[in-house]
Amino acid sequence: MSRAKLSFWVIGALALLVPLAQLAQSEVLLDEGFCTDVIGSGGWTASDASVFVNVDSCWLRIGSDGAVNDYADKLGPFTLPFVIEWRVRTFSGEGSYTSLPKLEFYWGPSPNDGYHITYSQKPGDGWLFGFWTDIHILGPTSWNEWRTVKAVIRSDGGELFVKRDGDTAFTPIATATWAIPSVIERLSLSQHTDDVSDFDYIRVTTFWSCFESQLDDYVYGLEVYKGQLIAAGSFVHAGDLTVNYIAAYDGTTWSPLGTGMDNGAFALTVYDGKLIAAGLFTTAGGISAMKIASWDGISWSPIGSRTIDGSLNALAVFEGKLYAGGYYTDSESGDLNYIACWDGLTWSPLASGINGPCTSLAIWDNKLIVGGHFTTAGGTLVNYVAAWDGSSWSPLSSGVNQPVQALGIYNNNLITGGYFTAASGISASRIASWDGSNWSPIGSGMNSIVLAIAVYNGRLIAGGAFTVADDLVANRIAAWDGSGWSSMGSGVNDMIRAFAVLDCDLIAGGYFTEAGNSNCGHVAKWTELMDADGDGLCDSSDNCPSVYNPDQADCDFDGIGDVCDEFICGDTDGSGGDPAVDIDDVVYLINCIFAGGPCPCPPLAGDANCSGGDVPVDIDDVVYLINYIFAGGPAPCDPDGDTIPNC
Questions:
Q1: pLDDT exceeding 90 applies to what percent of the chain?
Q2: By the 8 A CB rule, do 388 and 368 touch?
Q3: DSSP 8-class letter at 133
């Protein structure tokens, strides 16, 4: 069919113009770890004078009559990041700016001469946000109605986001240039005596939160298996539930894996579709399993029958085989020296093995990387870290000067953590990066051992026994963004031994019993504002983090979601040029719809009439394009003809 006949065939059709539907965004949920409802109905205790009252471990100063008619403080430290949420009702036409409720964050020498941020209301002007004397109007609000505001101050330099009733997403209010420090010294909620508003509650939330039921002893290993978090360690109970050294968390509760083990479990991985656990145990689920076993979701099974002396502490899968390292030798043949390989049938040595314990394993550059307390591998001097290519050992330059405890991958480089203070003669305090040719320090490092490494939200995360990173206070956990280390809230009160990432949460496990300001039983969650568009996908893995796109459609496979890809609406064949939209685009679209030919990429490039919907491209778009090209109709993406794009 010729183009002229094709145009004649379609030009009489009528296009139904339907405005592009606004996609609803779900609220970003953040775990509330402490200080819940510290100000609320009946929450105040009256006294004869201003007093400090402890509410759920949050100290607040209140007025003598127990009402919020003067001020209420939570005295610091508030470590970043944190969330503050409050609900207030203000009555129309009364009071002045200074008499309305104010929420203030203070830092500096004292509340009077330090710096502060104020968030308030003003009749007729709506919500206000101020930094010192700089006030920004955020928009109108209804009076004599309860209004809820949630504000988030993040850890990366002091960015502040605000979300109010009716908002579909958080709005950035203050950027990192505001340089809020890592500690807010005082939170003040103030109101004068003319009673022009009511506070219903205020919540303060850190990004650390605890699990509903706590584990009763140390956590050494964490893994995600079939959508659940698996924890392994020396614990026996999760709350009141007996789990015996290993447990699964489904997002709500802990549960046992069968009857568990008879002794500690130290390492976890997934191999051949099954969860693998290793440690010091000799039975799993009541079945003999010498230090290592597999769980298929229903029952435990042993892996081989070799008898070893000691414990297994590290697991990895490389080239389809399972590797296990630890503090052990083979008591049968004596050829498994601290590390071994399982091929599905038998255990075998890696040449002559290593001459000391293996504590960590990772896959990098198509090699198995082994770290530990050894100095030789296969008889070759390697100094605490070595590479196995499947048949032979090799050093990583001259290695490091003390044992390696943790391995990870960040920005395509191998990251090592441990006791060491130098790598190949270069100063590197407990953490270093290897690019295949050279070792490099990562900032000024830490003041004590690094025991765990992870990547979360695009940053390198280190955990261990340290309390300082880059000369900053960082209690056992710190984040590296490529230029410097930063603390993660107030950290934890004892060593971190393991990390896992589940959904948008970083999970930490170890010896600690406190995370942030909360009592946690050896495992805790760190949650950041990571889903800005509310589509259920973390920003770090969302191919279009600013626009709601839960389907993650990416027709050209460029890593950018279709809804964020640049395109010219109506240029269905992507040819560009001047004009970008011509009869070739009409033919291309008809070929897509009726002949199974290629379709516009992204699909919205063909949605000339902005109809949206599950099938944005249809015959109406063909008619629309022909009307534009031949009859002077409105341009694509501008159905109302006002020259302003509508979609």
A1: 48
A2: yes
A3: T
CB atoms within 10 A of CB 176: 12
Predicted pLDDT of residue 252: 84
Phi/psi of residue 482, each to 5°?
A: 105, -15
The count of residues in the chain is 647
CA distances from 87 to 43, 151, 259, 348, 362 (A): 14, 12, 47, 64, 48
| Digit-coded pLDDT (tens) for 61-101 | 334 343 444 445 555 555 565 666 666 665 554 444 444 45
- Decide: 334 and 352 in contact? Cβ < 8 Å: no
Give the closest residue to 401 by CA, choosing from 370, 430, 367: 430
What confidence tens digit (pLDDT) does each residue in 485-529 have? 988 877 899 999 999 998 778 999 999 999 876 788 899 998 775
Residue 483, Cβ density class (10 Å: 0-12 exposed, 13-18 middle, ≥19 buried): exposed
In whole angstroms, what is the distance from residue 232 CA to residue 268 CA? 7
Contact of 226 with 236, CB cutoff 8 Å? no
DSSP class of residue 549? Answer: -
The span from the CA of 307 to the CA of 134, in Å, is 71
Cα–Cα dist 432/416, whole Å: 5
Run of H or E including 10: helix 3-10
What is the spatial distance between Cα 9 and Cα 31, in angstroms, rounded to a whole number?
A: 58
How crowded is residue 124: how many other Cβ atoms within 10 Å of its Cβ?
Answer: 8
- Per DSSP, the residues of 285-349 read TTEE-SSEEEE-SS-EEE-----EEEEEEEEEEETTEEEEEEEEEESSSS--EEEEEE-SS-EEE
φ and ψ at 366, to 5 degrees?
A: 60, 30
Round to whole Å and give the CA distance between 177 and 427: 32
Q: Tokens 């407990």 belong to which residue?
A: 430
Q: In Å, how far from its chain's centre is CA 592? A: 40
More confidently predicted of 538 and 362: 362
| Residue listed under structure tokens 């489904």 | 250
Amino acid 171 reads T
Task: Tell me how far apart the alpha carbons of residues 508 and 562 are, in angstroms, rounded to a whole number.
Answer: 35
3-state secondary structure 424-472: CCEECCCEEEECCCCEEECCCCECCCEEEEEEECCEEEEEECCCEECCE
- Among 563, 625, 566, 571, CA closest to 639: 625
